[in-house]
Amino acid sequence: MVVVDAGLSVAGTRLKSPITLASGTCGYGLELAEYEDLTRLGAIFSKGLTYEPREGNAPWRGAEVPSGMINRIGLQNVGVKAFVSEKLPPLARLGVPVIANVAGATVDEYVAIATHLDGAPGLAGIELNVSCPNVDCGGIEFGTDAGTLCALVERVRARTRLPLWVKLTPHAPIAEMARAAEAGGADGLCAINTMPAMAVKPVLREGRLVPEIIRGGLSGPALRPVALRCVYEARQATRLPVIGIGGIATLEDVLAFLAVGASAVQIGTASFIEPGIGTRLDGELRAWLQASGYARLDEVLPEVGS
Question: How many CB atoms neighbour CB 36 within 10 A?
């Protein structure tokens, strides 16, 4: 019987599995403890954090669309101080790397959050959210200009010793943004965040057909082909490890992202349909490796640049 090791080291962090939970879809992590064996996962990426608590956008904030969903939550969160004092300690006891997703309206806010997180007990890294399309200020504007992105990463890099990930948007040239993040000092990339999109409910109002509109970020299976292309291009453009995100729901999806160069994957929208999907995919991946005669995941991963 082959004993399978599905773990790997990514950007200085040891993951026991390439299956991780995506920011914004698992709360702060423990919300899924009833459904997931969180100790089997590679990492948990927290709900997006701002410096001060944030209420987020007013309803309606989500809509199901063909092959996915649109959300405009607007980074509702408890703020970085409450995260460190209340959310992080029970997560740290799981023994699973916890990576804080952070977002700011200004460079100084990103820096302030990173400074507060640096040295927080049990925190394994920071994921810079420079790609959120659901806020009026900050977010995606930092991830669509290479000079702005490089400068932001440099500022944050100077204030933290933690591994630093940059979450890229598909709404910009991926290779260019990946190189900018690398030049700024990032340790890894996450690709991709949601795509700006719109859903419309047609209604009659005063005898005229008018739209009720929700604008936000598109996620789910509809995003997967775009995400695969972005992971591939980011991996070809830099030497940085890439975590793939976008519509992952099956073992075949996981393998597809690994085949184009992802070191790991984040599970997002599929968690709303199947809250225990991370545990299932981890088991299926290990079974596939065993049935294929491999003892370690890194035996089947492609060469850098291949």
Answer: 25
Smallest CA-to-CA distance from 156 within 121, 193, 128 is with: 128
Mean pLDDT of 56-71: 91
**SS3 category, 303:** coil
Residue 3 resides in a domain:
no
190 C-beta neighbours (distance < 10 Å), count? 31
What distance in Å separates the CA atoms of residue 245 and residue 221, rounded to the nearest whole number? 10
Residue 150 bears catalytic tag: no
Q: Is position 237 within any domain?
A: yes
Residue 16's pLDDT band (boundaries 50, 70, 90)? very high
Question: What are the tens digits of pLDDT across the range 86-124?
Answer: 999 999 999 999 999 999 999 999 999 999 999 999 999
Query: 68 forms bridges with which residues in the sheet?
Result: 65
What is the spatial distance between Cα 9 and Cα 220, in angstroms, rounded to a whole number? Answer: 27
pLDDT at 306: 47
pTM of this prediction?
Answer: 0.94
Active-site position among 132, 150, 190, 230: 132
CATH of the domain at 120: 3.20.20.70
Predicted pLDDT at 141? 72
Tokens, residue 58:
């007013």
Question: How many CB atoms lie under 10 A from the CB of residue 293?
Answer: 8
- The Cα 105–Cα 153 span in angstroms is 14
Type of residue found at 59 = P
**In this structure, which amino acid lies at residue 252?**
E
Whether 181 is covered by a domain: the verdict is yes
User: What DSSP designation does 3 have?
Assistant: P
Q: Is residue 306 part of a domain?
A: no
CA atoms within 13 A on the CB side of 247: 24
Range of the domain at 15: 8-299
Number of domains in the chain: 1
